[in-house]
TrEMBL record:
It comes from the Eukaryota. InterPro entries: CLIP_SPH_Scar, Peptidase_S1_PA, Peptidase_S1_PA_chymotrypsin, Peptidase_S1A, Ser/Thr_Proteases_Immune/Dev, Trypsin_dom, TRYPSIN_HIS. Residues 141-377 form the Peptidase S1 domain. GO terms for biological process: proteolysis. Belongs to the peptidase S1 family. CLIP subfamily. CDD domains: Tryp_SPc. This is Peptidase S1 domain-containing protein. One of its GO terms (molecular function) is serine-type endopeptidase activity.
Amino acid sequence: VWHPPNNHVPSPNEPIGSVASLYGGCAAALKCVQEIYCTAEGMISPTPVVLTKEQEFLRVPTTDCYDRQAGVVGKCCRDPFYVDPWPSANLVNGFDDGQYKEDPRLGQYFAQKPRPARSGATRQAQVETCGVRNPNIPPRGENPLEVNFAEIPWQAMVLRDTNRSLLCGGTIVKPNAVLTAAHCVEGLDTRDILVKGGEWKLGIDEEPLPFQIVKVAAVIRHPAYTPGSLKNDLALLMLDEKLRTAKNIAPLCLPQPNQQLGGHCIATGWGKRILQLHLRGAIMRSIDVNLLDPNTCTQKLQGKYQNVLPDFSESVICANSNSDHCDVDYGSALACTNGNGQYTLAGIFSWETGCKDKEQIGGYIPPDMQWIETTCARPLRELKAIDKQYYQ
């Protein structure tokens, strides 16, 4: 929906800080410019733009910001010269240049090792729109597993800043909170962790709406999580600032008390090998998954996958798929719908029994809603203190 421009101009006596503080900064790939330099498509123009009434009505929604250079309130518009600072390898005919080495553990089950754990954990209603899949927004995926742009707006990516690596997937559950698998961030300094929302095609900035990269302010692991094990493998990444919701960035619905989940379920991400290589041009994928009852899962694990049993408990949701769980990412959501048009979080992808295995089983940790809601309701300063105590 188009909103009339905010043309607030500070008076000579009005301190700049008081105006600037009213507006947030612009996300990655965007710059704050005067509105007359922003096209109807939300792109920065080198010359002033004159729009017709119809173009103004149909223009891409933009966020207000403070243009310090001009001293006026402006708009966050897409920078046509923006380059994604995260390196990407371009595989040609299945071979890379040797710079990136495949992790020998790929395709095998493993649990990352040691560190201590902590404690903590009432509910509050979720208000904003959530769990809406957008299947018809171009550009489109190029094969049956690839999703279209903004189709899975709750999918996030967990990044490590110092070595510019892609760690895992994540699930946007609130504008300031991303749920992921705790083992993905084990042993890392919180200041080294970033969250990227709105990504679709890696290393190529051609999406209609920009992605956003936000610093993580605190990592809150589930109180029953034990490093080296994948039981209760959950962590909430509390963000330094809220993600700005848009068609390509929005939370997944959280389950209500006693809500029965089933219906159509999917898991999403880019895939193990893709994340490891940061493969340029790779598009987000979605696989359909079928939920297994606990007894069937236990029997299958006891028969063929006994190495997984130490991390299996009856609360874990097991699933199989006609596709490969290695085509999606740890930390991403198991999202299910009952045909109401919205998807709800059923679990977080934690482990699988091996890649390219027709009998493969994926393990998902169900969300602990009391812990999630209690954590998200606490002041950030308290959460930072809890995070700091974790390694002490």
